[in-house]
Amino acid sequence: MNDMTPEREERSANLKGLGCSRKRVEDARFTQGKGNYVDDVKMPGMLHGDFVRSPYAHARVISINKDAALALDGVVAVLTAEDLAPLNLHWMPTLAGDKQMVLADGKVLFQGQEVAFVVARDRYVAADAVELVEVEYEELPVITDPFESLKSDVVLREDLAGQTTGPHGPRKHHNHIFTWEQGDVKATNQVLDNAEVVAEESMYYHRTHPCPLETCGCVASMDKVNGKLTLWGTFQAPHVVRTVASMLSGIEEHNIRVISPDIGGGFGNKVGVYPGYICSIVASIVTGVPVKWVEDRMENLMATAFARDYWMTGKIAATKEGKITGLHCQVTADHGGFDACADPTKFPAGFMNICTGSYDIPVAYLGVDGVYTNKAPGGVSYRCSFRVTEAVYFIERMIEVLAIELNMDAAELRRINFIKKEQFPYQSALGWEYDSGDYHTAWDKALKTVDYEGLRKEQAEQVAAFKRGETRTLMGIGLSFFTEIVGAGPVKNCDILGMGMFDSCEIRIHPTGSAVARLGTISQGQGHATTFAQILASEIGLSADSITIEEGDTDTAPYGLGTYGSRSTPVAGAAAAMAGRKIRAKAQMIAAYLLEVHDDDVEFDVDRFVVKGVPERFKTMKDIAYAAYNQAIPGLEPGLEAVSYYDPPNMTYPFGAYVCVMDIDVDTGVPEIRRFYALDDCGTRINPMIIEGQVHGGLTEALAVALGQEIAYDKMGNVKTATLMDFFLPTAWEVPNFETDHTVTPSPHHPIGAKGVGESPHVGGVPCFSNAVQDAFRPFGLRHTNMPHDHWRIWQTANDLGLHE
Amino acid sequence: MSDKMHIKLNVNGEDHEFLAEPRDLLIYTLREKLNITGPHVGCDTSHCGACTVTLNGKSVKSCTMFVAQANGAEITTIEGIGQPDALHVLQESFREHHGLQCGFCTPGMITRATKLLEEIPNPTEKEVRFGMAGNICRCTGYQNIVKSILAAASELNAAQEAAE
C-alpha cells in the first residue's frame, strides 16, 4: 500500500495536505479590504476611550482635576486610580508575577504611563478631553540605567518597599527584581580558571519593540440585560484573557466571551494584558454601553511591550585547538517600571538558558538579574521564543569573539563544536533536552552553497585593495548557526499565571464530508486557517479545502494558551493531528462495519479505508462521514467528532544556518546586503510557501533590529523613538531578496515531526546581520561593537578604527 | 466645535454628501462615517501607508489629510478596486504569490500598487521597490509583495497586448 501509484498520488494531491504550497484561504478577505480587525468593530452607542499619559518618567502625582474634561460636551467619564480602587482594579497582575498600575496610583514610573482614562462620544472628543485633564506632578529622580538603579538610594517601587523576596526569590536591593541561576557556577569557574584560552566580552542587546502594523486595542461590551461581557481585542492568547478577566472582575468565566478578530500582526506585542483592556471593561460595566480603546502608534511604542534590553557578559573557555570547554553568561536585565515579562512562570529570564547554542559545551553557568528602571514595562518575546533571540545573539557573538582570540576561522570553530547528530537527544549543560538535529549537514550545505571559501578569498582581496587605497568599501561575511527552543510547553514545567501551556483542537466532521476544526491558538498572519487544515487533511483524508478552521472565539474554540513563541504548530498542530487520529480511529470502525470485515482488516489509504489486500473494496472518508450520522451502527454512537488537548512531552528545537554577505561604505557607514542565504530546518514542512514567507518576514525584522531599530531613552527618561520617523521599520527599498533553503530533521516527539518556524529567521537573522557588520571590520582590529548598527554607528566604528585617516 | 462644513465625496463610484468638522481626517470619515474599513490606520504620521487611497488619480495617505481638503474629490479605496466575482489582477496576484500575511497593510499596499502600475506599466524590480517604499509591511519582508506586483504587471501587459 506504500507505493505511490499515479492514481494514489492524485488522490493525495487532491487533499492539499502536508507539504503542499497551498494558497491561503485567508487572502480573499484581506485582499478585498474585508478583514475584520478590532478597530473595524462598531456597535450602536459605542463610546471611545483615551488615556491621559505621564509626560514624566518618574514623578509623584499630586492631584488630578477632571472638572474641565467632564464639562466638555460628549465626555461621559474620566476614570482615575481612585475610581478603580474600590473595585481593586487600580493595579493588575502581570504575566511575570509582579503587579502593575492600571492607572497611576500616587506616582508614575515611566513616560507614557497611564494616568487617567477618558470615555467620550467619539475619538475626537476623547482626545480633547485628555488635554483638559489637569494633572499636577512632582518630578522625582529618573533612573534609566539598570546598573545605576542597583546602586541608587531612590526607591522606584515604593509599593514593594521592605519586601526582600519577590515571586522569583530573594531581592538584593530595593530596585532588584530577581536573580535566576542555571548551571554549575563552581565547575564553570574552575574550567575558566584552568582553560588554555578564555575569550571575554560584554555586549548590550538594546531595547526594541515588536511594533506590529496594527496597534493594540479592544472593544468591551457589557450587556447588563443578560450579564454577559464580550471583549473583542488584539489578543494573542484570548482564552488566557478570559480567565484573567474573570479572576479580576469577578464575572463568572462562562459570562465572558473573548474574541480575537483578525489581528494585524503580533510578534509578541499582543501577548500581555494592558491597562487599556481593564479600563475599557470597567468603563463598559459603568456606562452599560460598548467602549472602544485603540492605542495610537506613539502610545504603542512608548507604553506597551518592549523587547530585549539585556546587558550580557560572557566568558568562553576553549582549548588552543578551539574545542569549547565552558561558558559563563551573566545578564543584567532592564525590565522597566514593572516586571511584565511574558515568560512561563518558572522562567523569569525566559529560555535564556538555551545560550549554549548549537554547541557541545560540557559545563556552563547562566545568571540573570532583573532590575527596575524608569522605562516602560514589557519584556516580551519579539518574534522569538522567550528570550531566545538574546541567547542566540549572545552565543553567536561569543563564538566570533573566541574565533578572534584563537585567530581561527569562525565557520570552522562552529563546525568543530557542533553537537553531533548521534548525540541527540542531547542534554545541554543548562538543562534542556534537544530533540533532534543534524547541524553538520546543514552547515556544510550552507557554506557550500554560498562558496564560503571563495567569499573569504574575495574578502581578503578587498581588504588588500582597501589598504592600497583602491576602494572605500569593506566586505563583511556574517555567519550564524542557531538552535531555537519553541513550542512551550510541557505543562510540568511551563505555565503562565498557573495556566498550563497545553493547546487544543476540536474537530467536527459534517455528514457530507466537510469539517470544521477549532483550536486554542490565534493566527496573526501565520496562515493557520490554511496550514492547520493541511495537517488535518493528511490525518483524516478530507481535502483541506473542505475543512474550515476557526480560532479566537472563546465561546466556540476549545481552551488553549494562544499563539506566541512559535508554539502553534508544535502544540496546537500536534493537537490537530491527535484529534485527526481519533477521528480516523472511529472512521476505521465505521468502515469495517460498512465493508463487513473486522476492524483490523481495513487500513487507511490517503482518503479512504480499504480492505487489506483488496484495494477495490473501500469506503472513502466521505462515505464514512455520511454513515457516521445516518446509519445505525451497533456499538457506536452517531456522529464523527473529536477533541484533543495536547500536552507536549518536550519543546521542539528548530535550527538553521545563515550567511550574509555585506558591503559597507566606510565613509558613509551604509551597509549594502549583497546576499543573504537562509537554511532552515523546522522538521516536517507543512506548507513550503508559508514557511518561506515566514522566513522572509523574520529576516526582515532581524535586519531592522540589527541595523537600526531601537527604543532609546534620554537621561530624563524621554522616549526618543516614539514615531515611525525615528523607529526604524525597513521599507521595500531597504530590504534585499533572501535565498531560502532547508534540510528536514523531524522532531521525534511531535506527531507529525514539525517543529515550528515563524521565529527562527528572526532568532538566527539578528546575529547574522550583526556578525556581517563586525566581520567587515575584524581585519582592522574590531572585536565587538553593540547593535543597532545604523549608518552613524557604523561610521563611528570605522572612525574609531582610524579608517577615515 | 467649529462650524461644520458641507462635504461632497465620490467614493468608489458612489456619491456621498455630509457635514464634517474642519478637523475631521479623511481616514476616519471613510472608516467611521462611510463604513469603508479597508484602509487602516497604522501610524498616524504618513509613514506606513496602511491608509493609502487613490484621490483624484494620486496615491494619498488618508490619515494625514482633512476630509475638507478632499471636498469634491473622487476617491478609490481597496473596496473599489475589484469585486468578489471580478478581482483585480493585483488582488489575484497577491494571493498567488503569498504577498500578504496578517493582511493589515494589504489594502493600502494593493491600492498603491494599482497606481504604481499606471505610473509605470512595466516596472523593474527596483522601480517597484522604490515606488512601494511608502507602504510598510511588517510580515512579508516585501519579497513576495514585489513578486506579486511584477507578476501582475506582466499579466496586465500581456492582456493589453492581446487587446491591441
Largest interface: A-B, 56 and 59 residues
Portion in strands of chain B? 15-25%
| Radius of gyration of chain B (Å) | 16 Å
Instruction: Let me know the CATH homologous superfamily of the largest domain in chain A.
Output: Aldehyde oxidase/xanthine dehydrogenase, molybdopterin binding domain
CATH fold assignment of the largest domain in chain A:
Aldehyde Oxidoreductase, domain 4
* Largest beta sheet: strand ordering of chain B: 2-1-5-3-4
Total number of distinct structural domains of chain B: 2
CATH class of the largest domain in chain A: Alpha Beta
- In quaternary terms, these chains amount to heterodimer
Query: What CATH architecture of the largest domain in chain A do you see?
Result: 2-Layer Sandwich
Summed up, the domain count of chain A is 3
Number of helices of chain A: 20
Short description:
Chain A has 805 residues and is of the alpha+beta class. In chain A, strand 21 (426-427) and strand 22 form a beta hairpin. The N and C termini of chain A lie far apart (73 Å).
Q: Can you tell me about this structure?
A:
The complex is a heterodimer of chains A (805) and B (164). Chain A is an alpha+beta fold. Chain A has 3 domains: 6-35 and 503-646, 2-Layer Sandwich (Aldehyde Oxidoreductase, domain 4); 38-140 and 215-263 and 271-303, Aldehyde Oxidoreductase, domain 3 (Alpha-Beta Complex), CATH 3.90.1170.50; 388-487 and 653-800, 2-Layer Sandwich (Aldehyde Oxidoreductase, domain 4), CATH 3.30.365.10. In chain A, 29% of the residues lie in helices and 26% in strands. Chain A contains 20 helices and 35 strands. Chain A has a 7-stranded mixed β-sheet with strand order 3-7-1-16-13-14-15, sandwiched between helices. In chain A, strands 11, 12, 17, 18, 19 and 20 form a 6-stranded mixed β-sheet that branches. Chain A has a 4-stranded mixed β-sheet with strand order 23-33-34-35, with helices on both faces. Chain A starts with 5 loop residues before the first helix and ends in a 5-residue tail after the last helix. Chain B folds into 2 domains: 5-80, Roll (Ubiquitin-like (UB roll)); 89-159, [2Fe-2S]-binding domain (DNA polymerase, domain 1). Chain B is built from 5 helices and 5 strands, in the order ββαβββαααα. Chain B has a 5-stranded mixed β-sheet with strand order 2-1-5-3-4, covered by helices on one side. Chain B is globular. Chain B starts with a strand and ends with a helix. At the A-B interface, helix 2 and helix 18 of A face helix 1, helix 2, helix 3, helix 4 and helix 5 of B.
